[in-house]
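hi! just following up on the protien thing from before. the input was this:
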Amino acid sequence: MKKILHAAKYIIEAGLEIEKILMAETYSISSMYNQLRGDFTNESWKRLICNNKGCPKWIFIMYLALQERLSTKDRMSKWGIQVEQTCPLCEQDMESHQHLFFSCKNSTEIWNKILTWLGITRQVYSWEPEVEWATRNVIGKGAKAELYMLSMTGAVYHVWIERNCRIFQQVKRGSGDITRQIICEIHCRGSIHSKLKKEL
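and the predicted 3d structure came back as:
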């Protein structure tokens, strides 16, 4: 009884009237939950994260990249940290999320090779158009859609790892080596799931 009475404060805090709830002819738990939860924007990119077959660390980096929360050099300079602004991959342009995924010459080569491997013949877009294309075209739970999400997540993760290796370990790899590693890891992840295994 205490718990029921205590729950009334949450209903009041949510701006709902208890009298109207009691007078309602029908009651739905889901509609009540949505009213208590409040309004949240439905992000179009969530399908790239939800039900993704990638490693948890891939998905975490992808999640941060989609929200532009990775510690790129342009973000660090906004925080007042003095860093060399040049992209460690191409060593030409200023590093940002937009540049790193996939405007940078090196990351463009990696993503282009993976798109070719997937059988997709189109140009590589910069970050926001690439995410928009994926959210529009990668629909459903089919093997091709899941493989695309897995590939994009793997590419984002490995581009970020390569960037960090070049900064902190002074180790450089070519785009071909990185692409081979991504495809190899996609095969390893895909072999666990029968639908992806058949597609691969």
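Residues 143-168 form the longest helix (26 residues).
The mean pLDDT is 88.
cheers
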